[in-house]
Amino acid sequence: MSRSGLSYRSILVTREVYERLRSLKREGESFSDLIARLMERSGADYGLEKLAGLLSENEEEAQLFEEALKEASKYFRWTS
Predict the structure, then answer these.
(1) Which residues contact 77 (CB under 8 A, 6 or more apart)?
(2) pTM across the whole model
(3) Which three-class secondary structure state does DSSP give residue 18?
(4) pLDDT tens, position by position, for the chain (80 residues)?
(5) Which residues are CB-contacts of 38 (< 8 A; sequence separation ≥ 6)?
(6) Handedness of CA 59, 64, 70, 73 (dihedral sign)
(7) ∠ at Cα 25 (38, 60), nearest 5°?
(8) Closest Cα to residue 39, out of 65, 76, 70, 19?
(9) CA–CA separation, 57 vs 14, rounded Å?
(10) Chain mean position to CA 8
């Protein structure tokens, strides 16, 4: 069930990806907020093929995002 009228979805990530995401979280920031911040910063309006390149200014974030995309690609088909 959702809180405050919001709907929630679970996603599966490896322990390594989880730990890396956790290390990027700011104090008081939820994982949803973190992912939204990373997407906003990367220009997530673009196709997924272009996103990883947009994060290249921060190597750790770029690598994290690339690994998350690889993991997600096991479960989803991406379209541009």
Answers:
(1) none
(2) 0.47
(3) helix
(4) 445 667 888 888 899 999 999 999 999 999 988 888 887 766 555 555 555 555 556 778 778 877 887 777 776 665 54
(5) 24, 55, 61, 65
(6) negative
(7) 60
(8) 65
(9) 24
(10) 15
